[in-house]
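2024-03-11 09:14:02 INFO worker-7 job=invfold-0412 stage=load source=structure_tokens
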């Protein structure tokens, strides 16, 4: 009986030790399982929030770049100054303004004119080449003078040509007394001859024969008009305040133009207008 009890005790001890070893081995596994459970239970960040925050930063960066570029462009670009002294608004194109001065100007000067300015004093033509413009203006004054004057509001005067200025009236031959005067007494014949001569003289002083054979009475003041012709503009030089100016005259009508330091050509109806336009260009 005693031996059986001893065997049983040893068996129980062995089994108990095995059980304890198993328990000891299970401790790390249980700890690992517990850590895994703790990590699994911790809250995770949503990817939508991360994407939204990233997009917000990108938008802010783009806006900053845009405003920075705009500011740099504004401070680096010089301002454009448009002179408006004595200027009047107009809807016409430069080609129409140039053609309004003279129909010949667009073809002759169009490629040399960079800008046209109309003012209440006249016109300013800014040019990019002085020699060809100067040469054309001097050589063709008679052709563009009338149209230039019209654009400046200056009338071209005319001249009336009468028929008697070109064809003088023929002399009127008075008849000589016939032999019938011999039949009259001496005093009566002399009186008759004197009367005929006086009538012929009066007729020659008050009548003239026109080219068509008709007789007109000059004593009434009537003269036959042949034609009415415009008086062409003739130009000459003058110098005022160290500025050379070309003066065009047609009877009592006058226009002026001048070159300003090979930069522009100015047109006006007065010398004061030319000098004022010059000051506007050189200001």
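2024-03-11 09:14:09 INFO worker-7 stage=emit residues=283
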């Amino acid at each position: 009986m005693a031996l059986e009890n001893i065997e049983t005790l040893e068996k129980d001890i062995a089994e108990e030790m095995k059980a304890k070893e198993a328990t000891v081995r299970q401790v790390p596994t249980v700890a690992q399982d517990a850590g895994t459970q703790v990590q699994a239970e911790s809250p995770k960040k949503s990817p939508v929030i991360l994407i939204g925050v990233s997009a917000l930063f990108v938008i802010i960066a783009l806006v900053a770049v845009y405003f920075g570029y705009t500011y740099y462009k504004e401070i680096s670009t010089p301002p454009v100054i448009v002179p408006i002294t004595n200027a009047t608004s107009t809807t016409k194109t430069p080609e129409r303004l140039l053609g309004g001065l003279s129909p010949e100007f667009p073809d002759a000067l169009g490629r040399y004119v960079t800008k046209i300015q109309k003012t209440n004093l006249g016109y300013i033509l800014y040019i990019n080449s002085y020699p060809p413009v100067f040469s054309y203006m001097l050589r063709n004054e008679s052709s563009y003078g009338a149209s230039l004057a019209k654009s400046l509001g200056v009338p071209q005067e005319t001249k009336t040509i009468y028929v008697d200025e070109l064809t003088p009236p023929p002399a009127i031959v008075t008849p000589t007394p016939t032999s019938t005067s011999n039949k009259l007494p001496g005093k009566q014949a002399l009186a008759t001859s004197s009367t005929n001569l006086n009538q012929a003289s009066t007729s020659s002083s008050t009548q003239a024969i026109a080219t068509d054979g008709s007789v007109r009475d000059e004593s009434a003041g009537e003269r036959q008009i042949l034609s009415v012709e415009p008086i062409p503009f003739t130009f000459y030089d003058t110098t005022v305040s160290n500025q050379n100016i070309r003066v065009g005259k047609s009877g009592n009508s006058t226009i002026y133009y001048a070159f300003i330091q090979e930069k522009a050509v100015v047109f006006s109806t007065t010398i004061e207008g030319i000098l004022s336009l010059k000051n506007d260009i050189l200001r």
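2024-03-11 09:14:09 INFO worker-7 stage=report msg="The chain has ten helices and ten strands."
2024-03-11 09:14:10 INFO worker-7 job finished
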